[in-house]
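Query structure, 263 tokens:
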């Protein structure tokens, strides 16, 4: 296939074709996911959980993400490659830009940042300087100690209104994609309807423009607690390739997420 670009993702969204996203941390899995038609590979700071065995993403460093981004970039040929900016690496626009440049030099084509309206200045600063931005709202795991755990967000009217205002502010500041994590499916649908940029959901219902899962979760190899929004795609398959293809198919035909994966 041709290389997946940001305009191609926007076109998919406009045409109602769902975007399939998976996390990747190394060259071999990146190569396999790319050849299975995964549209976007995310070098997530979830590597702190799944690769480093930590209980939060907070200790993950810029060096960690840069290293894994170089590995994924070597294995990937056509998928769009996004890298997470770790906790503490985007506190000001200038710091965010310098750190984003490192990840872009490592092979990222976009960076993802957790947070709401306070980030608009940073999003504008980055996008003006040629760094595309993927905003992340809802359950933002870097905020775990402020949120008091990994719990569903946007349940109250007040929280839902704030999330919608944040989403619109981030879009207006230049964000090109919006990740929605662990929010009620009805809110995922509402936000997606409000936005002109694609929304990628994880526990945000079936109406987002696309879906993402952590690869260890969708292959059933993560030993920790399994979130409600996770589906293990290995059962019924005879290979990892089969499971990844089944995931892409299920996102494309909207059979994933089913109601049992939603809030
Ligand atoms: O780090 C990560 O894996 C993420 C996800 C939302 C999948 O940010
Ligand atoms: Na992340």
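Result returned for the query:
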């Amino acid at each position: 296939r041709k290389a997946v670009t940001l305009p191609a993702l926007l076109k998919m969204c406009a045409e109602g074709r769902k975007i399939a996203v998976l996390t990747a941390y190394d060259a071999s899995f990146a190569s396999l996911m790319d050849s299975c038609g995964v549209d976007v590979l995310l070098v997530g700071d979830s590597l702190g959980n799944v690769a480093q065995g930590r209980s939060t993403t907070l200790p993950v460093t810029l060096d960690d993400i840069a290293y894994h981004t170089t590995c994924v970039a070597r294995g990937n040929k056509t998928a769009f490659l996004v890298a997470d900016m770790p906790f503490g690496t985007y506190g000001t626009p200038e710091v965010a830009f310098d750190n984003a440049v490192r990840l872009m030099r490592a092979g990222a084509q976009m960076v993802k940042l957790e947070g709401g309206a306070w980030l608009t200045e940073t999003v504008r600063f980055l996008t003006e300087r040629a760094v595309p931005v993927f905003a992340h709202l809802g359950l933002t795991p870097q905020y775990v100690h402020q949120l008091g755990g990994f719990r569903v967000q946007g349940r109250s009217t007040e929280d839902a209104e704030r999330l919608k205002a944040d989403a619109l502010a981030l879009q207006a500041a230049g964000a090109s994609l919006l990740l929605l994590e662990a929010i009620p499916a009805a809110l995922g649908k509402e936000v997606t309807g409000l936005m002109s940029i694609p929304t990628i959901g994880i526990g945000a219902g079936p109406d987002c423009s696309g879906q993402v899962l952590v690869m260890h979760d969708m292959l059933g190899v993560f030993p920790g607690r399994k979130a409600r929004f996770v589906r293990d795609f290995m059962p019924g398959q005879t290979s990892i390739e089969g499971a990844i293809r089944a995931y892409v198919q299920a996102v494309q035909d909207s059979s994933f997420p089913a109601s049992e994966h939603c809030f």
